[in-house]
Every structure is written in C-alpha cells, then in structure tokens.
Structure to design on (712 residues):
C-alpha cells in the first residue's frame, strides 16, 4: 500500500496532534530547566511529571480537559506523597504501594479515563521508588514532578484553547476517514474475484473502527454543545459534519444486497462493476476532503456519481441506485458545510441562531443520559470485574516488588512493566505482555546497534531521543503498541547513556521487562474474569438494542434523529459483544463457550443491521412513508427474531423456527425487503445453532436461555 494513504490520515487525525502536544509539553520544561539552571535532576523531574499527566490528555471537549488533567496531577501528588511518607519503613512502603495499586485497579470502573489516571498514580509511585533506590531526595523530586504536571495541564489547555476547533475537527475527520474505509470494504463486495466471506470479515473489522471513531467524535462534539450556552454556528457545522459521517456509514451498511447474483457474470457483472467504481470514487473524495476540512480550506464539489448510466436501471444493480443517490446528496451536504466553515465565496451563509438544527437537543439529551457521572459505588456496581482486577493487580505487584528487591539494580522496571501489561481482561493481558516483551527486546537490540555504530555525540543522542519519543507518543494506540514500545525503549536507553555512558542499562532493561511481562501474564490467572461469565448479558443487550433499532425503522412515524440514536445503541451493543467474542478467542480452550455459535450469530446480526439500514434508507428516500402492507408480516417476524422468540422456541421445544414465505401475491414495493428476509433467515439459523449448543451444555430443558435474561 502506498505511504500517502496511511500518512495523510495520520497527520490530520487526533494522534498526530496529541503526539506533538505531548512531545512539546514533556520536552519544553526539561529543556528550560537545563538551559536556565543546568540541573539534570530538576529537568528529569519536570519531564516525568509532565509525562504522567499527559496520559490523561485524551481527545475530549476543551471545557473538560483542564479539569481532568488537574485531577490527574492531584492523584499523582497524593500517590507519590503517600509513598514518600513511609519511604524509610519497608513494610509500610510495601503496604502503601499495594493500596495505591488496589485503588488504581478500581479506577477501571470509570472506563479508559479512569484507567489512565490510575496508571498515572502507579507510575508516580514507581518513580518515587526509583528515586529512593538511586539515593535522591524524595520531596524535592516530588515537587518537581507536581510542577511538571501543572505545567503540562496549563500548556495543553493553552494549546487547545489556541486551536479551539482542532480537537473536534480532527475527531470528526477520523470518523469520516473510518467511514471511507468502510465504503472501500463495501465496494469489494461487488468484485467477483474476492470471496464474500473475506469481504464480510473485512467489513466487520472496518465497522468496529467506525464505531470507535464515531464514539470519540460524538463525545467531543456533543460535550461542547452541552457546555455551550449560546447557538454557535460553528458548533452547528461540527454537528452537521458528524451527522454526515454517521450517514455515510449508514448508507455504506445499506449498500447490501444479493451479491451472489451481481457477481455471477454477464450484464449483472457490468452493473456491479459500475457500483464498485462509483463507491470507490466517493470514498476517495471523502479521503481528499478530510485534510482540507481540518486545515480550514475550501473543498471541491463531490464526485459526480454515474447514476444516470443505463447499467443501474436493470437487473439487481438497480436496487443500489437510490442508495447511491442518497450517498451523493450526503457528500454534497458535507461539501457545503465544509466550505461554509472555510469561508469560501459563494458558499451558503452560516445558519443563524433561529435555524438551530432541531435534532441537536435530542442528541445532547441522549448524550447527557449516557455520560452521567457515577458515584464510586455505582460505578463498581456497573463494573463488577473491577474488584477482581484490583485484587489481581495488587497480587502481581506484590510479587513484582519481591522480585525487584531480589534482582536489585533498576528493578522498578519490573513493577512498571506489570502496571502497564496488566488488563481487566485475560486476553488483553496476554497480548500486551507479549507485545511489551517483544517491543522492548527489539528496542534494546536497536539501541545497542546505534551505540556500536558510534552514535555518541551529545547533540546527536539528544536529537534521536526527541525523535524516538515523538514517534513513541504518536504510535501509542493498540494497533501499533509494539512499535510504540520499540521507539520508547530506544529513547529511554539513549537517555540513560547520555546521563551515564555505558551498556549495562540495555541488559537490565531487557531482563527487567521480560520478568515483569512474565509476572503480568501469569497474574492474569489470579481471580480471572472469563468472558463467558458475562456473555449472556451482552448477548441479551445486543438483541434488545437491535430490536429497538429495527422498531425505529418499522415505526409508522419514521424520523431520522430517533433512528440515528437507535442505530448508535445497536452498533455499540454489537461492538461490545464482538469485542468480548474476540477476547474469548484468546483465552484457554477450556474456558471458551459457544465461540463458533456466537461468531455465526454476530455474522447474521451484521447482515440484519445492514438489511435494516437498507430499509431505513428506502424509507428516507420515500419521505418517511409508512411500510407497505406486503412488508408488515416480514417486519413482524424480524421483530420476533431479534427479540429472541425463535431462539426460545428452538431452545425449549426443539422445533424449527417459522420462515418467511416467498409466495407473496405481489412483490413488495420496498427493494430492501428481500435483504431483510434473507437476513432474518440467517438470524434464525444462527439462533437454532446457538440453541442446540445450549442444549448440549445445559442440563434441564426448562432453564432460561441466555438471550432471554435481562442484562446486568
């Protein structure tokens, strides 16, 4: 793949902007301390404090950012001060360390933000232990770390205030890029040479990326709208771009049909090729739009879809013509909004306060309900695995401190590795341990090669350190975590070599990380939270959300704003179930339950979601007209299937589930209805297979099946 399609989205996305902000926020205080005072200890303290607080610098709306980073600074100060108070009492110091680890483990109940603040506290404690082992004064070092944390909070807030729309625009841009990638995967379904199973697998992966990107963009945009007390046209344009990104993905889902007939050759194959080319051109236009939108530059008109060509007027390809027309209109709306924000001449003026979009209050209200702050006991009640994780993390760190005491040297790297690799889920802990060990060992090898090749000049070492740290920050995400560890290891080892020339740190870093990674991997077996233990609740939640999603489409008063909210909930619930299924595949074989059956159900559910989206786009193109009478029986059966009724029949009675008749007197006028019927049959087959697996493993015929239990 060419480098440009990879580098361009990265440079105009959140990660590059956050990485540059983090690098400057960490390096600047250290450089100023060295330039003004020439004190390396002060420089390191400021840089490490800024780095700890930078962990809490996640993409979010500006009003929330300073509060979160100040909270991280306060947590860092309290955790480091608590260990500094008992530094000369080994037993008390060990108990305080375990107490901080336990509290940090409980913080995962607040999601990724709580997890990062917990890691910030743990790293602060570990740095204080390292300062004690090195014979340094703890309280001055703590003061410099807190100063560095406050500096970073002020610096990051100032940068975001100086570029107030960059966070939101880049978040929306990443959502548009993810939607374009999903469009490209959808276009592959029309190519006869690509197996359909491979296309569906790639579509599922792209859909997960879209859901994650939309969640980040939605949180940023709606948070700013919720905090605003006036109708700002710029915020309305951000909301319109976000809705456009969501609609693009929805139309991409709706571009679902009888691919087997389209790929069969002949005239149908020519129509399929035209649909493929049109989708690819639209995806390319979206990818070209994002950099110009982020930089505030005017954009050109969207690609003209070849919808008037005769190839789409006959055969199965004609079902896609109306959906491609909706997609073309959506792209035209994005271009208009982007040009209005860029101030392009001839663009329509920004919407005044009187024409504030009517669906914004509904979206903000739903976001406020979902993002309501929970008290600690409420958060723990909603995340029962947090207590197990806290106990598991404390036990692993207890063992790690004993091992670190035994090996001596820079044994705090053992504790640091355990803190980083341990995760609330078993599979994630195992994967993170392997990636951490591999990235560190390769980084140690690369650092040794650099030093062996004669990289010794201070200015050259300093330059490489800054570059490696910048790349490390930029790649700090799950998909590129090993590369981030690789460059971070090089930066740390070169920094140590700059301070104390020698090769011993390379060996110690590799050995300590290996020991910490092994302890973290083994610690995952302590009070583990296996995925099958909550599988019934996640399956029931996915069924309920998908049923509400279909009901929003089947409703007589079809309305796009309510439909988008129901679609968000359905995709989020299915994404949660799919992530649990992926994690369960990484667990020991004896702990896996219904892996193949859940995979089949997820594949059928994705087909159902696509079919419902296609029907929604048809209703949208018809102005929300009621469903034809010929469609109502099929809609009722789809509702029963999503509600789990056919699953219950198969599980309890062993009877075959009801089927949709093909012999309707007249063809239903909704072209998307045939896809809905096919998806319903796929869901019924998946239900029967899951019910049969349940009967084989569950004694007693009267026991309620998992899909009918209420979610926890």
């Amino acid at each position: 793949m060419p480098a440009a399609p990879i580098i361009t989205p990265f440079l105009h996305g959140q990660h590059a902007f956050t990485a540059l902000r983090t690098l400057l926020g960490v390096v600047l205080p250290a450089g100023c301390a060295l330039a003004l005072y020439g004190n390396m200890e002060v420089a390191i303290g400021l840089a490490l404090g800024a780095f700890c607080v930078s962990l809490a610098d996640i993409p979010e709306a500006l009003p929330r950012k300073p509060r979160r980073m100040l909270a991280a600074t306060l947590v860092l100060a309290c955790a480091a001060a608590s260990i500094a108070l008992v530094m000369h009492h080994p037993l008390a110091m060990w108990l305080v360390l375990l107490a901080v680890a336990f509290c940090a483990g409980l913080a995962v109940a607040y999601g990724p933000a709580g997890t990062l603040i917990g890691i910030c506290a743990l790293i602060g404690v570990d740095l204080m232990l390292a300062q004690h082992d090195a014979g340094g004064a703890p309280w001055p070092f703590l003061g410099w770390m807190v100063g560095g944390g406050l500096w970073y909070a002020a610096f990051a807030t100032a940068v975001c205030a100086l570029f107030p729309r960059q966070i939101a625009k880049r978040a929306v841009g990443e959502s548009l890029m993810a939607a374009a990638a999903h469009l490209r995967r959808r276009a592959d379904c029309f190519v006869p040479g690509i197996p359909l199973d491979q296309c569906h697998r790639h579509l599922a992966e792209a859909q997960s990326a879209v859901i994650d990107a939309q969640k980040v963009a939605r949180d940023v945009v709606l948070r700013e709208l919720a905090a605003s007390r006036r109708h700002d046209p710029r915020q309305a344009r951000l909301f319109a771009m976000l809705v456009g990104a969501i609609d693009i993905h929805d139309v991409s889902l709706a571009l679902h049909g009888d691919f087997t007939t389209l790929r069969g050759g002949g005239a149908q194959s020519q129509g399929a090729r035209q649909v493929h080319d049109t989708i690819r051109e639209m995806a390319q236009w979206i990818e070209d739009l994002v950099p110009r939108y982020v930089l505030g530059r005017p954009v050109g008109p969207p690609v003209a879809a070849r919808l008037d060509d005769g190839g789409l007027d006959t055969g199965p390809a004609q079902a896609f013509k109306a959906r491609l027309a909706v997609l073309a209109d959506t792209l035209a709306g994005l271009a208009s909004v982007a040009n209005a924000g860029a101030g392009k001449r001839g663009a329509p003026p920004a919407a005044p306060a009187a024409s504030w979009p009517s669906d914004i209050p509904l979206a903000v209200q739903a976001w406020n309900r979902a993002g309501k702050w929970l008290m600690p006991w409420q958060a723990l009640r909603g995340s029962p695995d947090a207590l197990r994780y806290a106990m598991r993390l404390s036990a692993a760190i207890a063992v790690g401190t004993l091992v670190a005491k035994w090996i001596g040297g820079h044994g705090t790297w053992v504790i640091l590795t355990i803190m980083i690799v341990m995760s609330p889920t078993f599979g994630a802990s195992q994967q993170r341990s392997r990636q951490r060990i591999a990235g560190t060992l390769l980084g140690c090898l690369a650092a040794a090669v650099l030093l062996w090749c004669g990289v010794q000049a201070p200015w050259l070492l300093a330059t490489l350190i800054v570059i490696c740290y910048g790349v490390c920050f930029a790649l700090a995400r799950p998909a590129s975590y090993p590369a981030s560890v690789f460059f971070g290891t090089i930066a740390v080892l070169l920094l140590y070599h700059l301070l104390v020339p020698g090769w011993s740190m390379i060996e110690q870093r590799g050995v300590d990380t290996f020991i910490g990674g092994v302890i973290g991997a083994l610690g995952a077996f302590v009070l583990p939270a296996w995925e099958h233990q909550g599988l019934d609740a996640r399956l029931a939640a996915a069924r309920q959300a998908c049923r509400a999603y279909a009901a929003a489409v089947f409703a007589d008063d079809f309305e796009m704003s309510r439909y988008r909210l129901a679609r968000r909930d359905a995709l989020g619930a299915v994404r949660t179930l799919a992530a649990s299924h992926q994690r369960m595949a990484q667990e020991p074989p004896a702990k896996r339950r219904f892996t193949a059956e859940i995979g089949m159900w997820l594949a059928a559910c994705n087909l159902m979601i696509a079919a419902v989206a296609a029907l929604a786009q048809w209703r949208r193109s018809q102005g929300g007209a009621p469903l034809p009478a010929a469609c109502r029986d099929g809609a009722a059966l789809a509702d029963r299937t999503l509600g789990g009724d056919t699953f219950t029949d198969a599980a309890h009675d062993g009877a075959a589930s009801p089927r949709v008749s093909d012999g309707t007197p007249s063809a239903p006028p909704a072209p998307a209805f045939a896809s809905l019927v096919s998806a319903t049959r796929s869901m019924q087959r998946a239900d029967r297979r899951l019910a049969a697996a349940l009967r084989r493993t569950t004694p007693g015929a009267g026991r309620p099946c998992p899909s009918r239990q209420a979610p926890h």
In short: Confidence is low (pLDDT under 50) at residues 344-355, 646-669, 701-712. The chain has four domains: 1-164, 173-211+238-346, 406-529, 534-660+669-708. The longest helix spans residues 196-227. The CA atoms of residues 19 and 473 lie 5 Å apart.
